[in-house]
Amino acid sequence: ERLNRVLQQQWIEKYDGTQYPPVFSGQMDLNESRTEFGVLKDVLLGKPLLSFEPAALDNSRAVLTLSILGVTFTANEIDAGVLYSYTITEAQGYTLKVVLDLSLVVGVVERLGRVTLDLSKGTQFMCNLAGPAASQKKLGEFFNQRFQELPLERQVYELGILDLKGGSDLTPTHF
Known about the structure:
Blueprint: H1 2-13, E1 24-29, E2 36-52, E3 61-77, E4 81-89, E5 95-101, E6 107-109, E7 114-118, E8 123-127, H2 133-149, E9 156-161
Antiparallel strand pairs: 1-2, 2-3, 3-4, 3-5, 5-8, 6-7, 7-9
């Protein structure tokens, strides 16, 4: 709950787009046979919400959920043309989910005490703009590619700041 409040505050402070992902547009295949494709125009993502799934020692995961504030989505079939097209608002409940494998996504405590989470590794993206699971996976791959194209500093979320006065052997360096 506290982490989500911190993430929400960062999102509000940086809503101008300087730190969080910019508006995305592009085209992607919606199935393996490449007979359907989707076109996203002006995807605007909302504030991130972090949740943790039940964990075991060999499988710890977290999910970062970003609401879709607005987008125009068009699904096309190569032979038939436009299958459907609609403009989406946040009220419709569409999301981008980023599954974080916590064995690969390492949080870091910097020298100044900033606690950060790097999303550039160990992630799986899924988006529910399309119904079929294969299409959701393809949409996720599109978003993953767009996130990977961002500068590294825009793939890092700040989770808090630790007071490192009187550092000792017990001062955390990563988590």
